[in-house]
Amino acid sequence: MSGQNLFSFPEFSSLIHKHAVEGSRLFDRRKVGFEKIHFVLASQGFHHDMSYFVIGMSGVTCGGKTTMSKLIQRSFPWCRVIHQDMYFYPKDYPGHVRLPEINDHINFDNPAALNMDKMYEDVEKILRTPPQGKEINGVARNGEIAPNFAEGLELLRNLADINIDTSKYSNIPILIIEGFTMFEYDDLYDKFDIRFFLTLDEETCRHRRSLRVFDPPDGEGYFDHCIWPEYQKHYKHFIEDRAGIQVLSGKTQISSLWKESVEHIIQKMEEKFAYKLNKAKENL
Questions:
Q1: For residues 208 and 109, what is the distance between their CA atoms, to the nearest angstrom?
Q2: Count of alpha carbons within 13 Å of 82, Cβ hemisphere only?
Q3: Cβ 7 vs Cβ 17: under 8 Å
Q4: Residues of the chain under the 50 pLDDT cut
Q5: Pairing between strand 80-83 and 194-199?
Q6: What's the confidence (pLDDT) of residue 188?
Q7: What's the chain's Rg over C-alpha atoms?
Q8: Please, which residues bridge with residue 58 across strands?
């Protein structure tokens, strides 16, 4: 389980003590590898839930990040979603970078505008406590509604389904983390099992941005002075030619993007959880 040490489990500590009393050197932390520890834990009946499969969905503003996150959630309706936009500091935050050339407008495209410590803390909290049982149609076995599930169904409800059966993977807890600068942070980057980045050309991005309403609204010149330069800088330093990121065009037909993304996710899950998936198949 991500972010947690085996030695922090009370049952494991008790097991170490038991063998230490018996004079066993099996659990010498300096000499025993993870495989031996795992084998002994399993033989003693200690089993832990499957770890999360973590999806990173990033890209340029208005490139389709949120739409794709919701569509992936539609294919895997038991998953959880965290949106980076929920972690912007309030407008009166004194640490904001301001743009005097645009009436002192806040630079919301600068990483300083985000409380990434809080976001990382929330991600860690989720990854440390995987659900005890699978969630079916957005409802966990304990009756709680999976976060963001309702919004996932409402968005693009008229879009035809891609007809990929994902029920085989319903025991795998999935976390989607969506946002525009997530791949800048190594600690967060390393948690993703798969990473998508959506791009747009400048003209298309400018047009889409002009059709949306923001609070506060974009000041005159904000796109040229801030949005596009910040995106270019981000792409050059953190995305371009970087292994492990699947770059997709946000101009591609949405159904094709959705299908391609789900197929990539399934392939990665098959790789990560091959043993458990095969074991489940044998038990059918």
A1: 16
A2: 21
A3: no
A4: 1-49, 134-152
A5: unpaired
A6: 94
A7: 22
A8: 197
